[in-house]
Amino acid sequence: MLLTLAAALAGCQGQPRPEPPPAPEPAPPVMVPQPPRLALALGGGAARGFAHVGVIKMLESQGIKPDIVVGTSAGSVVGALYAAGNGGFALQEMTFDMDRNAFADWQFFGRGLLRGEALQKFINDHVGKQPIEKLPMRFGAVATKLRSGEGVLFERGDVGLAVRASSAIPGVFVSPVIGGEEYVDGGTVSPVPVSFAQRMGAEVIVAVDISQVVTESPSDTTVRTVLKTFDIMGNALKANELKLADVVITPNVKGIASADFESKQRAILEGERAALAAVPQIRAAIAAKTRLVPAPTAPARLPPAID
């Protein structure tokens, strides 16, 4: 019997050990869609800027909310108020307080008819006096350095002052001085600030163009003459900007003059109509640039500490 047991043990020692089972394949990561960074680029156009309110209202109703908003002139006014957390309907209510008298701080000597301080105060009061970098939505205002003609994007600091600089139409508003530089309306370099939206990291850009074809009818006041001149300049500049946009919304603001604050409700409605028509194109642009990325993993939980 001992011989039999020894023989069995010897036989076992001569056989190779079985290979361990292969390690299980790691589970593939869970992929989730990551939409592109969406920006609204709101153009200038003085009183026609009320159309931006209608655009925002309609996009909100369709569940489309931008990550970035950048504005020139009137676009910076609406953009700042929107970036501060005011939805489309709240913006529409604010328009009741927006008329010539709200921003009329006249001066009779100097390089502008209006100081612009009333506009600055209006904006700061309605954004809770927050600086740009503290606004709930990323915001930029485009202005122009008077000395060099360089376009500047304000992304930090006093919201009202940035909007005032962006809206300082030469001859109408006094040019504000910021950091030793005089600034004028951003529409002199970027009437619809698509290129500045790109600088802010936007991946899909919806531009809102509220300019209009200038008619031959004469202007009856100095302010209207200046505003019409601005429209002419803007029409010449905007084409290159609009080529960079994924979607261009063009509200039908024909016949609404730059100083026509009485037509604000019509401008809002035209903004809504134009935005609704553009929704399929916006959704397609977002879908085309949406990519799948690994889902974020939850951090490992540590065992409770033992006292």
UniProtKB/TrEMBL annotation:
Alphabetical list of Gene3D superfamilies matching this protein: Cytosolic phospholipase A2 catalytic domain
Entries under InterPro entries matching the protein: Acyl_Trfase/lysoPLipase, NTE, PNPLA_dom
GO terms of biological process kind: lipid catabolic process
Highest taxon of source: Bacteria
Catalytic residue positions: S73 (nucleophile), D185 (proton acceptor)
Keyword Membrane set for record: no
Record's protein name: NTE family protein
Annotated organism of origin: Hydrocarboniphaga daqingensis
